[in-house]
Amino acid sequence: MTTGNTLVELDEVTKRFGDLTAVGGIDFSVRKGEFFTLVGPSGCGKTTTLRMICGFEHPTEGEVRIDGRSMGSVPPEARDTNLVFQQLSLFPHMSVGENVGYGLAKAGVDAGERSERVSEYLGLVDLDGFEDRNPTELSGGQQQRVALARALVNEPAVLLLDEPLSSLDRKLRKQMQVELRRIHKQTQGGFFYVTHDQEVAMTLSDRIAVMNDGHIEQIGPPEEIYREPASEFVADFIGDTNLIDARTAERDGTTVAEIGGEGGFGVPAPNRTGEVTVSIRPEDFTIANGDGALHGTVVERYFQGDQTNYLVDPHGDVGELQVVIQGRESAVDTGADVGLDVVDGAPTVF
Ligand SMILES: Nc1ncnc2c1ncn2[C@@H]1O[C@H](COP(=O)(O)OP(=O)(O)OP(=O)(O)O)[C@@H](O)[C@H]1O
């Protein structure tokens, strides 16, 4: 299973706490130079997984390998990993420079080289010249960047990040996402990122693993996860979607899921029969006054600048649908009778 390109491998890893199975037999690998994100709802087992990679927890069953080597009972400090937490964990009594250089000092790196490496990594996180500042004088975003520099300075094979942006406000979080991408590109190390925030996962990652209740539902690049969700859970958790109950029927020799009954429209559902669920993303609809595959009434309309969101109550037993139209066009008002069409090939049938 090991290839030269693989950095971290989890092989049938299970972690039980008493009767509770926090992680139930998961497999994945993180490649060299990859930004890999584990995303899932609170309590699904993300942090436990990360803690098994860095050695703070040990699998009940299965094996963690780093660079092809079984981690068995290798203690955290002997693993080629470093960790950045959600809570800012800088030493308040040390300067920024001392914080960043802490691991190097512990490893016995001499003062001259330490000082060079510290300024190099402060430069990487865009904090040139901050060596003598005190961490308490810095903003939350700057402190988080110091924590990043501190974790990166001894060049670990894998940087583990546990919700490092969640204590920042929305704007700063967006900025730090861009920064993290850039820092990852420059260091070319493996990043293993854990978050419940699917938007962050989509923005940052080369690949995402979606976790649910201790198991992995799907692994793939963000676009694939979004466009071709492997399960109803993934479709619902990653981005917004409409999950519509439907039944299959034969139309012109092909099997379709009928949305809105016989008069509604058919979504191709090859090899399926009976009750199904159809996932349609809000942006995969088009909306117009008048005709469409489905008819309905606009219940609500929310203008959001770059897009307009509609809540449409379709005729037939479909349930309200969320529709998003990007751009400036928003010619349909609340209360209007509208037609909805769906972009060909966009829906997924479960
Ligand atoms: N040391 C422990 N002892 C007992 N149960 C634990 C322990 N650590 C975690 N758990 C349980 O294991 C499950 C998974 O927890 P974990 O922290 O891995 O989830 P998570 O996905 O990281 O959640 P969050 O996003 O809220 O941090 C939870 O039900 C949690 O209560």
Characteristics of this structure?
350 residues, alpha+beta, Rossmann fold, OB fold (Dihydrolipoamide Acetyltransferase, E2P), 2 domains, 6-stranded mixed sheet, 5-stranded antiparallel sheet, 20 strands, 24% helix, binds adenosine-5'-triphosphate
Short structural description:
The chain is of the alpha+beta class.
Description:
24% of the residues lie in helices and 36% in strands. With 350 residues, it is an alpha+beta fold. The strands form 4 sheets. Strands 6-7-8-3-9-10 form a 6-stranded mixed sheet, sandwiched between helices. A 5-stranded antiparallel sheet has the order 13-12-11-14-20. Strands 15-19-16-17-18 form a 5-stranded antiparallel sheet, with no helix packed on it. α2 packs across α3. The model has no long low-confidence stretch (mean pLDDT 90). The structure holds adenosine-5'-triphosphate (ATP). Adenosine-5'-triphosphate binds next to β2 and α1. Its EC number is 7.3.2.6, 7.5.2.13.
